[in-house]
Automatic annotation (TrEMBL):
Pfam families: YbeY
Keywords tagged on the record: Cytoplasm, Endonuclease, Hydrolase, Metal-binding, Nuclease, Ribosome biogenesis, rRNA processing, Zinc
Protein name in the entry: Endoribonuclease YbeY
Function: Single strand-specific metallo-endoribonuclease involved in late-stage 70S ribosome quality control and in maturation of the 3' terminus of the 16S rRNA.
Similarity comment: family membership: Belongs to the endoribonuclease YbeY family.
Amino acid sequence: MPAKFYEQDVRSGLKDKRKLSAFLDAVVARYRPDVKKAQLTYIFCSDEHLLQMNRQFLDHDTFTDIITFDLSEEDNKIIGEIYISTDRIADNAAKYKVPVADELHRVIFHGALHLCGFKDKKEADKKVMRQKEDECLAAYKKETDK
């Protein structure tokens, strides 16, 4: 099932949504070959909106670039809602001196990887997550450069 992308009072600047959706399906198939159906919903929002969600659902009082909710009820299905702050994306792109589109795609892949079972709380897990993000970003760039 194709990923869905929504904008909540912000502009994501996201291009080639069909290609991105197909790529996300391939990411899920690669890392979770047991999954028969994946339903990924991305909601782009402001810092303030994501901060309120962070407070309400995670009891964290900090800005974040992404919150991923795994709503899956069956082992062979992935259903997830991924909320992304476009404000954090822009700030992080400037901070790390990378194009906004690259940072946006990295975070989009990060959410999908979480739903595939990758974690990022421990240092070793963060390293693996970053490696997988880099692999996804490189493969997606290669795919879209065709």
